[in-house]
Structures are given as structure tokens and as C-alpha cells.
Amino acid sequence: MAVDPxxxxxxxxxxxxxxxxxxxxxxxxxxxxxxxxxFFMLIALILYLITSPFSVLAQWLIGDELxxxxxxxxxxxxxxxxxxxxxxxxxxxxxxxEGVVFTDGGMEVVYYNQLDERWANVMYGQSSTIGEAGxxxxxxxxxxxxxxxxxxxxxxxxxxxxxxxxxxxxxxxYHSLIPAAAEGYGLSCxxxxxxxxxxxALSGGKLVVAIMSKGHFTTGGHFIVLRGVTAExxxxxxxxxSHRRSNQExxxxxxxxxxxxxxxxxxxxxxxxx
Length: 274
What we know:
Blueprint: H1 5-51, H2 53-58, H3 63-75, H4 87-92, E1 101-102, E2 109-110, E3 123-124, E4 128-129, H5 130-133, H6 135-148, H7 154-163, E5 167-168, E6 172-173, H8 177-184, E7 188-190, H9 195-203, E8 207-212, E9 222-229, E10 235-238, H10 243-246, E11 249-250, H11 252-258, E12 269-273
Antiparallel strand pairs: 1-2, 3-4, 5-6, 7-12, 8-9, 8-12, 9-10, 10-11
Helix pairs in contact: 6-7, 6-8
């Protein structure tokens, strides 16, 4: 059926108006939703920067500047999280180490492992479990239980760490946990140790907490306990992430080389005794 020119013109005008109205509605929707979307994206960015500020900064740096950021992260508790696909996690998760005591280092040392089935999945703070990030409180559990003669398991020390502000949320534990927990449980604690200081401390019935960086003990940052020295000068350890490594003898030079360099006051080694 033919349409007269006047009707066709009117229909064309209506169609054009409809298109214009649709475009106007889209522009209005963009004007309304644009600021809201931008606001939520800004909030998300701020939260990311707050929770992982140095990880973000590290993406923009190279060379010496990157090393400074990485050192700062480790000093203040970063990079201690144990990934579920790492060998230590796969070896230890679901195991029970109840009743394990080391007697080959000149003193009986109570052993706790952060991946023990009794507490591996217990939350340490709000963002990680003891199994993932609890090397700090687990190391202090080993030290405190051994030296006081009373059991203080990783759940107790993890709760103590959170309560007293030594949990580095999203990562691990601040290095301040070592002297603070020692003092809190009535033990002496001395930092800034030399090689001879470490040997003397271990020979004298003390334990030494070491903060390790990337190497044989960790891919990031890690707390371990030095528990003795052999007649040949080898170091025995209690590694809270690895019972296997805890049964090996280690060169002190290797431990010194892989220890966290330039840690906060007290350095990478702390001698703890009664």
C-alpha cells in the first residue's frame, strides 16, 4: 500500500525523534551511572593500595629501588604467606606432629608445625590461617613451650599476636612479635647477634629465632628457630613449616647468608632464654 508523502514525512519525524530520545536516555544513564561507577572504582583502588601498598609500588620500580621496597616488606611482616601449591604446604598439611620433641641438640625442644592438622585451618587474624601465615607465632610457641616447660600452642600465640598488635594482616607477623612475646611470657631476649653470639647462645641453653629471606627455608620471609649446635659446628633448627628441614644439619654460614638482612632493631637473630 502506497504511503502519501505527508504521512511518510510524519513517520520519518517520529522515527528520528525516537532515535533522539533513545540517545538522550543513554546519555542520561551515563551521566547518572558514570560518577557512581567511578566512585566504586576509586574505593576499590584505595582499599587495594591500603592492603598492599608496597606490592603496588614494587610493580613500578626496578633495580635498587625495588630491593628497598622488598626489604621494607620483609622487615614489617610481608611475604610470609605459604602458598597452597608450595612444597612445604603440600608436605605438611593434614599431618599431626603431636608429641614431637627434639633431643639431639643438647636440650629437649618441643616442636610445633604451623601445618599441623590441629590448627592449620584456624584463622590467624582476619585474612589468613595459621597454616598459611603462622610461622611467627608457631616459632614462638616452640621457644616459649620449651623454655617455660609449659605447653603454649600456635593457636594461643596467634591469638596473643593479634591481640597485642603483632599480626601483619594479609601477610604474616611483624618482627616485633619476637621480643614482645618473649617478654610477655617472662623470658629474656637479646638481639643484634654476631656469629659468635649465636653459637654461645645455643651452647648455653638458649634458643635463637631467625628471620629468613628467600633461600633454602622460604620463597619470601620466614621465622625459624635455631635449637642447637653439633660438635662439628653444624646448626640444628626447628622449622615451623617443615619437619623434614628440622631433621637436617645446616651450615651457619648458609643461615647467616639467607637471614633477613637489615631487619628492624634487633636484626635477623634473637637469642631467647630464661
